[in-house]
Structure formats: C-alpha cells, structure tokens
C-alpha cells in the first residue's frame, strides 16, 4: 500500500523457461534470450540487485519468489496472475495457471487469475467454460502467435469465426475483461499480429466487454491512443510499457501523457510484469513521476496528479474486472505479508535496506 492507496499489479507471471519445458528450441530460444535482454539490459533498473542472472531467470516457476517480490519487497497489495497460452512453444505455456491457482489458494486475498485461451488448440469454448467453472478466473488472456504442428500460427482479430466465439462465450459466462498481448514481439515472429490495427471490430462488436491492450503504448502509440479515444471499452494495460520507467522516465511520461490527453484516465491499468521485472523500482519511480513541465505547457499533456495515480494503481483494474479491493485486503490482513515489514533485498537477497 502507498499511503492509503491499495496497489493492484495488473499482470504478474511465474515463468518456466527451462530446457525441459521448451517444445522447440529453435523457435522458443530467441524469445527467451530477447526477453532476458529486456530484463537485464534494455529496460533494466539501474540498481543491479533487481536483475537476476540468466540461470535464475529461466530456472522455473517459483511461487514464493513471486509472492515475496510483490508483497514483501514492494508496496503491491493485490496481483492479477496471467496464464500465457503458448502451449506450442512451452509445454505449460511458460506461465502456468497451476502456479497462479496455488498462489491464490495460499493467499486468497492477494491473487486473482486470468486464464489463457488458444484459438488454435482444443475447443476454445469449452476452455472458457472450464476456466470460469473450475478455475474461477476473472478474465481471459489471448496471445497472438504460437507454434502449431511445427508451423507458426498468427492471429488476426478480424477473423470473426475464430475470435468472436471466444469473446461471446466470455461475455455470456459473466467475465468483464479480456487481455490481448500486443506491441511487444519477441522471437523470430512476424510483427503484424502484434500491431493494434486489427482491433476495431473487436471493440465495436463487444461494447460491454473490456478489452485490455497488454503492453499498450510500448509500440504503435498513436494508433493505440486513437482506439482509446474511439472505443470506451478499450483499456491500456501498462505491463512492459511501465519498464521504460527504469531507464527512460521521460519516454514513459510521454506515453502516459498521450493516453491521458486522449481520455484514458479511467482505463489505464498498472502492471509490472513480475517475475520478469521486479515491481519495487517501477512502483517507486511511478509514484515519484511528474509529467515534465514542457510536455504539459508545450504539448498539452495533463499533469499526473495523485488522484490519477490512484486510479492507475488500483481503482481502474478493480472497476474493469469487478474485484472488490476492500474485501480482498480485509481477508489478507492476517497473512504473513500483513506486518508491513520489508525484506532485506530483492529476489530474497540480502544487503538492501
């Protein structure tokens, strides 16, 4: 919690990049290497204690590592765990729902789940039903590429036969939000599926369903901002994009200011992308962030007030998904993180006060 503000992390994972979990090293290897490059170099925090080694990075799902990073080593109160539906590349999809379920079972007031749905595998409609009935997810996650029968499959959201039934079922089952990975393309994949120009029909046909553009603004900023302006059900999930705070805070301020200028104040969702990135330096940088004066005066960007930060850090996610933040925090007030004591260092390391 920051001051009296309940902090919700809109995307967390527990990744498993071990060799024995990779189905095709030629396809998955570059993805893992490039993702680590973002975490350890391009978007890395200046304090190297927050950067894990490559072996630590790919060592496999560690639920307690994630829980400690979020709730003991940062000011996060609640997290939304995302399964990643790339079962053609990784046997468990790389961020298995089973880990999220275990975390929610142990810390029921701190975790909610988004379940992955693949348009190419099994019966997606039955998958939605199972995720709602058995796994009690509050949202869905869709990834735009995967390896299917040894060949790369790419998703066009304008493919109504493949996409619309999934969203119709989600809406029928009472889900309020669907998150779609965009903007960040990793591995030897085409860029087109990660663009946002295929999303118009999805927004228009499902006005009652919140559609989150995950990594919104990381790339294709102007196109994404125009979606926000035209479609009230377009939400921006800041996973990945928030990592510009580590090295390029002005760039992040420009991205955020652009979204705010186009009316996104109530539709921006904070996310750290833990366990790729540690949430603490990102949260601290965001809380201290001010939109530079010249961007306010010369570009017309709105100032980043404490009230806007309050919305981004929790209120928007709660409204989009239907989470009751007060009930969740009340149910976790006696768990092992409730003392408010911060551990010595990130990722369980010693030496950081």
Q: Could you give the count of β-strands?
A: 10
CATH topology: TIM Barrel
State the strand order across the main sheet.
1-2-3-4-7-8-9-10
Q: What is the N-to-C succession of helices and strands? A: EHHHEHEHEEEHEHEHEHHEHHHH
The radius of gyration is 19 Å
Beta-strand level of the residues, as a percent range? 5-15%
End-to-end separation: 18 Å
Q: What is the 3D shape?
A: globular
Runs in which pLDDT lies below 50 for 5 or more consecutive residues are: none
CATH class value: Alpha Beta
List keywords for this structure.
353 residues, alpha/beta, TIM Barrel, eight-stranded parallel β-sheet, 12% strand, globular
Report on this structure.
This protein is α/β, with parallel strands linked by helices and 353 residues long. The chain has a single domain, classed as Alpha-Beta Barrel (TIM Barrel), CATH 3.20.20.140. It is 39% helix and 12% strand. Strand 3, helix 5 (124-133) and strand 4 form a beta-alpha-beta unit. The model has no long low-confidence stretch (mean pLDDT 95).
What is the fold's blueprint, element by element?
Blueprint: E1 8-12, H1 25-42, H2 54-57, H3 63-72, E2 78-82, H4 97-106, E3 111-116, H5 124-133, E4 139-142, E5 145-148, E6 151-154, H6 160-172, E7 177-181, H7 200-205, E8 210-214, H8 221-230, E9 234-237, H9 244-247, H10 249-261, E10 268-269, H11 279-288, H12 293-299, H13 306-321, H14 325-331
Parallel strand pairs: 1-2, 2-3, 3-4, 4-7, 7-8, 8-9, 9-10
Antiparallel strand pairs: 5-6
